Amino acid sequence: MTARTTRRTAIGRSRTAAAAAAAVAASLLLLSACGDQTDAAIAKREAKKNRDVNAPLFKKLPKDVQEKAMLQVGSDITYKPVEFRSNGAVVGIDPDLAAAMSKALGIKLNFNNATFDTLMGGLKSKRYDIAMSAMTDTKERQEGIDSNTGKKIGQGVDFIDYLNVGVSLYTQKGKTKGIDGWETLCGKKLAVQRGTVSHDLAKDKSKACEKNGEQPISIEAFDNDSEAQTRLRTAGVDAVSSDYPVAAYAVKVSGHGKDFQMVGGAPLKAAPYGIAVPKGQERLRDALRAAVELAIKNGSYAKVLDKWDVKDAAVKKVELNGGS
Fold first, then answer.
1. Where are the alpha helices (DSSP H) in 115-259?
2. Residues 141 and 263 in one domain
3. Where does the UniProt annotation place the signal sequence (predicted)?
4. Domain range enclosing 127
């Protein structure tokens, strides 16, 4: 290689590097001009853009919430019909009720997907401002106690109770295997969603089976209810237990009503669903409670429940920490 060739190559590389640097600089300038284009940044800008300071309950919110115009909501968005995705959008009972609350508050309630058993931890770490996810109001959750170990795991939450539901059982259609209630589950395989009231109830019933000299319930716990349904659909388990609205919806729509059937009669252990707010956030809690009360008063609450066929779960009074 001649000296001239070497020099020409070096010059070419220098020009190429300079061009690349210029392109990077131009890109950075463009990004700077356009602002942060991440989903989170876009959501924040849209929230502030749509903030309604004249909404009836806006001034009840804490100042920092008024400023950011958004609450991050932790939710397991796989729990039809309470919350799920349809064509990319988050829909269901909770999102519809949250939309009615948003109008009253003048801010956005932004749903974030997570597995159900991580929601309390997400509140503790401040990843979410609140949790709204078919979460049953219990004393353990109020006090921040792990229902499995009995140990304190956090400061606990306050619940704004907005629905009253129980848990139900369903099996493959025409293949109940003799299951007609919880007392006939001994020795059977049951799928549940991990960390739910159904999971706790199944463990209690299994202990009762053993105490009576029968085989325990073989419990399979999944991250979400869709996985439990798939397990039943493929005959991997004998039954599924979930909250009544979820069970009824699965029976109605799965296989156009041909996959599953309800068993066991009326739902057990009726208890309230609550919006979970970390302890110490009384102003936020009270503003959210007022938003649910206003939704009941103006009829938007009844419209949501009627749309999703859960009218029987309606509450007449919005209690705080009404669970046991």
1. 119-124, 139-143, 197-211, 225-233, 244-253
2. no
3. 1-35
4. 40-165+272-313
Distances (CA, A) of 318 to 193, 287, 294, 321: 27, 12, 10, 10
Q: What is the pTM of this model?
A: 0.74
Is-contact 296 163, C-beta < 8 A?
Answer: no
Distance CA 303, CA 100 (A): 10
Place of tokens 């309604």: 52
Domain assignment present for 196: yes
pLDDT digits (tens, 9 = 90+) for 90-118: 999 999 999 999 999 999 999 999 998 89
> What pLDDT digit, counting tens, does each position of 14-29 carry?
455 555 555 555 554 4
Asked if 93 and 83 touch (Cβ cutoff 8 Å), the reply is yes
Calpha distance 174→236 (Å, rounded) = 16
Residues 85, 62 share a domain: yes
Q: Is the alpha carbon torsion for 230, 234, 240, 243 positive or negative?
A: positive
**Residue 15 falls within a domain, yes or no?**
no
How many domains does the chain divide into? 2
Residue 265, in any domain of the structure: yes
Residue 117: Cβ-neighbour burial (10 angstroms; 0-12, 13-18, 19+): middle
